[in-house]
Amino acid sequence: MDFIEKTKATYPDLTSGLKKVAEALLINPIMFATHPAKKIASLIDVSETMIIRFAKSIGYPGFGMLQTEIQRSLLSLTPPNGVENAPITDPYAGVMESDSRNISQIANQLDWKTTEDVVDHLSASTSVKVVGYYQSYAYAHWFTFLLNSLLGNSSLYHPETEIGISTSGKENCVVLFSFYRYALGSIRLAKEAKERGNTVIIITDSLVSPANEFADYTLVIPISQKSILEKGPVTFSFLNSILLHIAKKNGKLGFVNPTSNYFINEDPEQN
Fold first, then answer.
1. DSSP string across 151-179
2. Within this chain, do residues 63 and 162 fall inside the same structural domain, yes or no?
């Protein structure tokens, strides 16, 4: 097994601290290939000893051997089908190319089986309340607007006017976005929703996110080490995938591209 397979195989048995290192490695192996253990520890906010313990936990005698394997693995990578990537000369295009690479990389790490279960549950729910604090508010607002267009039962939680979760029963669903640094308000609402018997769906960036203990379903987008600007395209792409599958499941793909409310109407039958 290579270092990725070893990390995934041992992940369930790791401590929370070692899981943090494991997730950082899976998300950003280049960081582990190019920095000493002390620097990596500083970047992901753990101790240098934790980095060394992690290497031993997945079967290496020390960090040096793990780093050597990561370096060899990265050097052996070739572009798909042997095609070289075209050089990016415009800095704006370069940002978009970087976003595309992040989406492609993280798509291979997502739990699509749990995602399908979430799609099924949202489609059958009586009501959906979506929660997002601070930078997560944009994700929650966008997701709520489109989800309500498809289901007609979804609303955004407004912390300035609402004082908690008012629904009870598993047929009512609460979707919470909880990204690093993990807003206390979201964690409190996850706990309250669980106590009321709601179905709780957590969309987060780590398996050790503190809200996860209250979740019926946890969707992990492994982007905890990314900047806020890098997280956005990946998160919206993932949410877009969920929404499209809900639309398909409910026979409402026509809602994805509505034309009746716009000046430009692309429906040839109405022109």
1. HS-EEE--TTT--S----STTEEEEEEE-
2. no
